[in-house]
Amino acid sequence: MALAFGWSQVEAALAAVHKIEVAKRGAFTGRLRHLQADGFPRGVQVGKGRRASYTFAHVMQTALALELMQAGTGPSRIKGLVEGSWQALASNMIDMLKNPALTAAWVIRPMALADLNAAPDERYADGFEIVDKGGVGDLLRADGFIPTNGVTWRVLALDGRQVLSGVYSALKAVAGDLDLVACYQDLQEEVTVGDDSETTMDKPKRGAAPKLASDLSRRKRKAPVETV
Length: 228
Hints:
Layout: E1 5-6, H1 7-17, H2 25-37, E2 53-54, H3 56-70, H4 75-98, E3 105-108, E4 129-131, E5 156-159, H5 160-175, H6 180-188
Antiparallel strand pairs: 1-2, 3-4, 3-5
Helix pairs in contact: 1-5, 3-4, 4-6
């Protein structure tokens, strides 16, 4: 059975993650309500006479939206960025829960002025790239000067493990004894991995949401170890 968190628990946990001042919690709540009113994350049961119910996956999607807000990403793009890459990001979270040594950076290449360009740039599709944390610097390197619009110099990278562990710890503090295995299973319900899925972390593809390459994608996943 999927985990279920109430609105107050989610709001309190994410406020703790972002160190929101008590006197300014109302403004923070307003940001979350705006996402909710836009139908994000999908599947949260809200409406007249119905209380919001968040799974762990829903909380992580909301946490990602807040990370993008922190980086100045416009509200109109946040939903597409998270939803467009969610399968890949959830797969990556599953693998990090299974393997404490695994690190990953969730990367986008911001281009907020894309709508003002003469022609759309396909290299800035709404989606995250997933790379090994140690390879983030390689994204900024190029052989010689390449006069393209930010391809090699405008990168936003989130430390995937830090985001995941921060949210888990904050939820555990708010909700009490939070079972890590249950979080793992909750994310698994979000992801369907084919037996023939195969890409590499060091060679991410842009455009469609990338998939995390792992031998775990080709065999039954084991339960996570008790750490994040």
